[in-house]
Structures are given as C-alpha cells and as structure tokens.
Amino acid sequence: MNTEAYRQILTRYWGFTSFKPLQEEIILSVAGGRDTLALMPTGGGKSITFQVPALHMEGICVVITPLIALMKDQVRRLNSLEIKAMAIHSGMSGEEIDIALDNCIYGDYKFLYISPERISTRLFQERVSRLNINLVAVDEAHCISQWGYDFRPSYLKIAALRQLIPDRIPFLALTATATPAVAGDIMEKLEFREKNILRTSFGRKNISYMVKRVEDKAAWLTNTLRNIGGSGIIYVRSRRRCKEIAEMLTANKFSADFYHAGLPQDIRDRKQSAWTAGSTRIIVATNAFGMGIDKAEVRFVIHWEMPDSIEEYFQESGRAGRDGKKAFAILLYSSSDRQQLESSLKKKFPPVGKIKDVYEALCNYLQIPVGSGKNTVFDFSIRDFVSKYRLPVIETFNSLSFLQREGYVEFTEEINNPSRVHFVVGRDDLYRFQVANEAFDDFIKLLLRSYTGMFTEFVAIDEDSLARRSGLSRDAVYRFLVKLSSLNIIRYIPGKKTALVIFTEERLERKALVISSDNYLDVKDKHVFRLNKMIDYAESATRCRSELLLDYFGEESDRCGICDVCRERNELDLSKYEFDIILDEVKKILTGNSYEAAELVSKVSLPPEKVIKVVRWLLDHNKIVRDDNNLLSWREPDLFSR
After folding, report:
1. pLDDT digits (tens, 9 = 90+) for 396-434
2. For a tag site, which of 357, 527, 602, 610 has the least CB within 10 Å?
3. CATH architecture of 341-415+499-523
4. 451 Cβ partners below 8 Å, 6+ apart?
5. Which tens digit of pLDDT belongs to each residue from 497-535?
6. In the CATH scheme, what is the code of domain 572-642?
7. pLDDT at 316 over 60
8. Are 536 and 529 a contacting pair, CB within 8 Å?
9. What's the DSSP call for residue 268?
C-alpha cells in the first residue's frame, strides 16, 4: 500500500513530515479494512490515526466521543484547516440535527462527530444508512467496558451501527488507558471481526515518577516549586481546595491560577490560554483540566491528593514532558489520605434507596410523567436541583452517576452553546423580503457580511460582536433576530451555558427501577480494586514506580532508574539482579514467619554484606517490621475491602 499519500496529507494539513510512533501502522490497518484497537498514551496523536486515512478515502468518517467540549474543539480545528466537519450532540435542537445530517449526506463533509447517546435516536438511525461512511472511530473506547474506570452504557449501543452500515466499514477504537481485561472487552463489545491490537509502549522514559510522604503539603509544595523550573499542573480533588492552593501560591509570589468545571466557559478558556502561552506558570486544577491541552513543555505534574485509579493517575501525570525532555510526576501522600479515601468511598456509593430518591426527585424536577421522557434532552442545573430538594451535593452527583451507569440517564458536562442562526428562505425570497421591508435590510446585510454558510446550516453568531459592528445595542440586535425568526426568515436559537440530562429510558415507577444489589456490589468491588492498586503504588517502596504502572497495563519493563525508588536503590551499590534476588528471598522467608536479623541474613543465598544493605533498606521503608522481641517479619498491606 502506498504510504506516501498519507504522508502528503499529514504535511498538507498539519505541517508534519513524518508520523509519530504507531500512527502509520494504525492508518495502514484501518485503510486495509481491519477493525483496530489502538492503545496510545496521552499526547500520542490519536486523532491523526483516523483523520488522515479518512481524508484519503472517499466518504465521511463518523467519530464517536462522549466529550462535547472536545468534539466541538476538534470540529473547530478541522474547519480552520478547511476540512469540513460537523458535530451532533444532545445540546442541539432537532431541527439543527436534521439539517446537520442532511449536509453530511448531500454535502462534501469528511467528519461527523457524534455523542454516543445520539446513536440510538430514531432520527440518526433513519439517516445513517444514507451516509457514505468510510470509517467509524470510537474515541475514549475504554468507556465501553464495565471493567473500565469510566463505563458509559450508551457506548454499548455503538455496535448496533454494524447492522445499519455495510460490513466492509472498519471500526477504530482509541484509548490512552486500557488494562488487558479492558482491551479484550472493547474488542468484544464492538464486535471486532478479528482481534487486532496495536499499541506503543506506555513507558515514558523522560518522566521521573515520585511519591512524597509529607504531612505539611503546603510547605513542601512552596519549597519544591522554588527549585523546579518550568511550567506545571497541580491536580486536586475539590473545587474549593483548587482555589485555596492557587491563592496560597500567589501569596507566595508564584505565578498561579485555578481551573475547575464550575467556572464559566469563557473564564476557563482564558485561564487555559494564559497557562498554555506561559503567562501563567502553574495551574491548580480538578480533573476537568485535561481536554484539549496542547502544551509540550510541561515540566511537572503534582497530585495534591490521590486519584481513584491508576488509569486516572497515569493519564493526568502523562501530561508532563510531552516534548521528550526531563519531567516530574509527583504524588503527595500523607497519613490522613487513606482516611479521606475511605470517607469518599462511602459517598461514592450511596445506599440504593438514596439513588432511587434522587431518581424520583429528578423526574419530578423535570416534570416527567411515568411512562414518558425517553430520548428527551433537558437543561439541568445540579445546583438548583439540590437546593430545591435539599439534597447533599456529592451524594446526589454520585447517585446521578450510578443512574447513568445503570443506563437510565446520561448526564453531560456543562456546555457552552453559542447563539445560532439559519436562513430558512432562499436568496431570491430573502431579496424580495428586503425590498419590501426596508427596516430589516441593513441588519440582514450585516448578518450576511459577518457570517457565511447560513443558508445551508445553523451558524454560530455573537450578538455582542454584531452590536459593535452595527452601532446598535445588544438588546436591539436581539430584537431584530427574534422578529426575523417570528417572520420565518431565519431560525434563531439563543445561546446558553448549561449541563444536560438525557433520559435514555422512559420514567419508571419506583418499584420498577432496578438497581440490583449484585450489580451495585460488583461496581463497588471494581472501584475498590482500582483504589487498592492506587494505594499499592503510593505505599510501595521496593519496586520501580514505572514498572508498577506499566505492569498494571500488562506491559513488561525494566527499572527506569530515575524514579524515587530506583534512585534510593542505586545508592545501595547493588545491581538490579542482586537486589531483586535478595528481596524475593527475604519476602519468602519472612512471610508467615519471624526471625532475628542475624538468622534472616544467614538464610539468604547472597553475601551477608549485601543482604544487610537490603534488609536495612526494607526496614527503612516499612516493608519489614520489628516486634517487641526484636524479631523481623514481612509487613502485609492493610487495603480496603468491600
């Protein structure tokens, strides 16, 4: 197959002369018609792997992603490259979706981005067979797996597309984080015709992973940031702490700001742009900060608190050092962190009765009668909802998440939908209207000069910009738009910023709402398993941090030599082979037994002076404990249970 054509597309649109590792192999795989699962680390260039082959083939690529903000950002980027792309998501009206699908069927669009819950709607299913689809790309593919950390039932409906489109069309599943179990689940749930996984190593040889056990995190942070150069991210778990830490850093003369999902979209955009451009050095953020980050020279990512899973930690810490230069990924861990995790675990899984209470309150809040509401989209303010029904915020949010996991609703992030305008009359009829209605003539000319494409689709407009250009007040601009809409000259949809709730099933009576205890406990067990793996990582002091992370994703690796564990081991002046043999023998001898130090050393096969170094190191790192009788034993971790 001629790979030069793909390189020419890469150069023409993105300016690169060569592909990143694995990109070309993935492109050739899907171009050959093969279903493909691509595992690529954060920043590996996943979008190129479907955008390049789709541009080379005749037809349109359907891209499925759960993140509306990311979807809109990618469409904007493609359009800026003069590549026609369209997005369909739950924040759009039925009329907008109808027009968008018509444009994809009859126009020369190359990409259709769609949120997964839209796939099962009647409108999409009626039209999809008329789309000339060349490839289906499934982003964030781990969401299809119940073993994954971010399972979404709407993803299970993606495979139904295979019944609506020709068999020859390949599926490309993309994710940055997947264990072997999740990878197998993705291929099974997407009904791959054959197993086909392409992956790069998840290893990041330039990142030094570290865990710092500190009680006064603020003091450690300010001292450390004075000695680390460059730009970075500090991840925290709460919005309140996010702002507090940023203000503490600012008070200590650091260039810092904060970012979380509760801020208006324009403010979030401004903060992210300032950090990306380098005018802000440090951004303190919740996990809402991550989508669309395009900054290679991040020198450090610090986690103030522990994430819930290795997947989350690996993805967030992987935002450091994308330029290939030395970078640090540091997790701060204190004695109180375990208690906080245990407390958050209880809030993460509200009692089944509470989940049903939230469901009933939600249905009443949105005024949905029993037996109706399926596939209906509602604007939703969780702040107003919990205030009206006097519900605890965290428990309510987690109840909504569980209802989403059970497949009753979809709950989207807040989206910033600008105002949109579409001319519903043709150019000739519009001209006759302008001649007969001189009062509207100047304003219509202003619209047509300011924006293009309004005769074929809904186009985003900015009332403030129109007001500045025309010399009118914003209110006058709004009145013109409303009046033209009432006269059926245009369709005008005012902008809004809101989260959305989509009822994927009709409202059920409480007694019919099934949240099985087995499923509930199964979900909890999987969450606890991932949490325990994260605690293992934080509390391990004997194994290379990079090895631990890669082993979780089923990848074998050698010691990195630059993490905190490796650095301390290097000071022992022992080879990896010697250290590992002594460690394995000591663990085997002391598991279930207790010995004096001298007797323990005598039982190990390597020279005593080397065994003593390792035993002392294990004592210092609390892997071996000494009792009141001076006997040594292996310390077993005390992890969470159900």
Report:
1. 988 998 898 888 998 877 677 889 999 999 999 999 999
2. 602
3. Orthogonal Bundle (1.10)
4. 421, 459, 461
5. 788 899 988 999 999 998 877 778 888 888 889 988 999
6. 1.10.10.10
7. yes
8. no
9. H
Nearest Cα residue to 24 out of 41, 12, 43, 38: 38
Predicted local confidence at residue 359, as pLDDT:
95
Contact of 76 with 21, CB cutoff 8 Å: no
Q: What is the distance between the alpha carbons of residues 279 and 283, in angstroms, rounded to a whole number?
A: 11
Whether the CB-CB separation of 209 and 549 falls below 8 Å is answered with yes
CA distance 143 to 175: 9
**Cα separation, 83 vs 75, whole angstroms:** 9
The tokens of 385 are what?
């909802």
For 49-53, 149-153, 593-597, which range has the lowest pLDDT when averaged over its residues?
149-153
Name the more confident of 609 and 467. Answer: 467
Q: What are phi and psi of 285, to 5 degrees?
A: -145, 155
The 3 state secondary structure assigned to 494-553 is: CCEEEEEEEECCCCCCHHHCCCCHHHHHHHHHHHHHHHHHHHHHHHCCCCCHHHHHHHHC
For the domain with range 207-335, which CATH number is right: 3.40.50.300, 3.30.70.2120, 3.40.50.11810, 1.50.10.20? 3.40.50.300
Each as own residue / partner, the long-range contacts of residues 427-431 (CB below 8 Å, 24 or more positions apart, any chain) are 427/455, 430/489
Q: Per-residue pLDDT for 463 more than 60?
A: yes
* CA-based nearest residue to 547, from 558, 537, 539, 561: 558
The answer, yes or no, to whether residue 64 has pLDDT greater than 70, is yes
Q: What is the dihedral of CA 364, 370, 376, 382, to 10 degrees?
A: 20
